[in-house]
Amino acid sequence: MELRSGLLILIAFLFTFFMTYTTTPLVRKFSIKVGAVDIPKDSRRMHSKPIPTMGGLAIFVAFAFGVMAFVPLDSTYVGLLLGALMITIMGMFDDIYDLKAWIKLLVQIGAALVVCFSGIVIKQITLFDQIIYFGNWAIPITVLWIVAITNTINLIDGLDGLACGISAISSLALLAVSLLSAGNPTVTVIAAILAGSCLGFLPYNLNPAKIFMGDVGATFLGFVLAVISIQGFFKVNAVVSFVIPFLVLGLPIFDTLFAIIRRLFKGQSPFHADRKHLHHRLVDMGMNQKQSVVLLYAISALLAISAILFAERMFTAAVIVLVVSFVIGCINWFVMKREHIEMLEKLDAEENEVGQPEQTEEEKPQA
After folding, report:
1. Which residues pair with residue 38 across a beta bridge?
2. Which of 263, 260, 293, 290 is nearest to 279 (CA)?
3. Parallel, antiparallel, or unpaired: how do β-strands 51-52 and 130-133 relate?
4. What pLDDT shows up at residue 367?
5. What is the DSSP letter of 240?
6. Are 191 and 231 in contact (CB under 8 A)?
7. DSSP labels for 63-83?
8. 95: Cβ–Cβ under 8 A, 6 or more apart, which residues?
9. What share of the chain is helix, strand, coil (3-state, %, to 5)?
10. Are 175 and 192 in contact (CB under 8 A)?
11. CB atoms within 10 A of CB 234
12. Residue 62 contacts residue 23 (beta carbons within 8 Å)
């Protein structure tokens, strides 16, 4: 039985991988035809030439066909597909027409409610073996979680391959937790489907990117990760079940919270776009796009490993991984910061030398 289950997971993964890989070039042509092209018009853009967007449509199509092919479609997962379809259609219009923030928020809330009424709700969490029930707050908390994670993935989509790669890592972490904890087998298959969809798109999205996911891809991935984390992470029989999804999605959650706090302190709207995200800071400190993405992949993977250890009740190992990750991250940050400062000082010194006029023979001091 385990062999059949493992084979199903592998087939589902490979199916969606090759489907995304083969349909992305077609979506790229479609994006250009409908005018869904990201033109670099401000400093937040890290690319220098127009790039077709809306590549997330290929990810959605592969995911939807994968779910319909390998998952028993009861009302729960029909609700997941309907909500994902709403998010995808919204993302397509946003990539073409640049929708208002409040319109996107309303659609995201509507999609989250569809999921809730289909039966996917955060009814309780576990805290040190004590179950805390949410009661009437279950649906509002679930909607808040889904909308929040949907937007966190969208906000980190600032470098080639970053959001797609982190979503793949998160999907694989969910797959591992579900397998090791003997959780919901359907969630395990869906996690494999999502991971395959992401990894099939990644070859086209890595630097230098041939196509971007666009909002259609980033919001779709955030939405699906939020929904299946409810079925997979929150329902794990762990001492602190709510810690697991926060670790797996820790990088986008941290970056979003930091962005909101930063903007509020400046008196700006939380939705105000800026160039202060973590990936922007790494590039500004001298790292290129590939180096920045690899570093953030590593951080996300370490957080995912610690989440898996938490799910297995290996708390000491999980804490050690987190502490070591934090220390290494701090060391790298200070080293890069120091190198950045030294580079700026060197440039200033060179500019001063170039700007200083040469002395004439009369101005030179006599021996």
Report:
1. 51
2. 293
3. unpaired
4. 43
5. B
6. no
7. HHHHHHHHS---HHHHHHHHH
8. 31, 36, 53, 54, 214, 215, 216
9. 70, 5, 25
10. yes
11. 20
12. yes
- List, for residues 258-304, the tens digit of each pLDDT value: 878 877 887 776 666 666 677 767 777 777 888 889 888 988 999 99
DSSP 8-state class, residue 126: E
At residue 207, the pLDDT reads 87
CA 198 vs CA 131, 247, 285, 362: distances in Å: 34, 20, 29, 70
309 near 176, Cβ under 8 Å? no
> How is residue 4 written in tokens?
């059949």
Residues 6 or more apart whose CB falls under 8 angstroms from that of 87 comprise 107, 108, 111, 150, 219, 220, 223
Q: Cis omega before residue 245 (within 30°)? A: no
Query: How far apart (Å, rounded) are the C-alpha atoms in residues 125 and 242?
Result: 6
In one-letter notation, the amino acid at residue 287 is M
**pLDDT (0 to 100) of residue 292:** 85
CA distance linking residue 345 with residue 337, whole number of Å: 12
Q: What is the DSSP string of 167-214?
A: HHHHHHHHHHHHHHTT--HHHHHHHHHHHHHHHHHHHHHSSSPSS--H
Burial 278-314 (b: 16+ CB within 10 A, else e): bbbbbbebebebeebbebbbebbbbbbbbbbbbbbee
HSE-CB at 88 with a 13 A cutoff on CA atoms is: 18
Tokens matching residue 304:
């995912």
pLDDT at 140: 95
Q: Given this model, what pLDDT does residue 251 score?
A: 87
- Helix/strand number for the chain, H first, E second: 13, 4
- Cβ pair 61, 19 in contact under 8 A: yes
Tokens 């937007």, residue? 151
Q: Which residue do the tokens 């580079």 mark? A: 343
Q: Is 249 helix (H, G, I), strand (E, B) or coil?
A: coil
**How many Å apart are CA 340 and CA 286, to the nearest integer?**
6
> Residue 132: what pLDDT?
82
Name residues of the chain where pLDDT drops below 70. Answer: 1-4, 41-48, 128-129, 182-183, 234-242, 269-276, 280, 332-333, 335-337, 339-367
Question: Hey, what's the torsion of the CAs at 144, 187, 25, 15, to 10 degrees?
Answer: -170
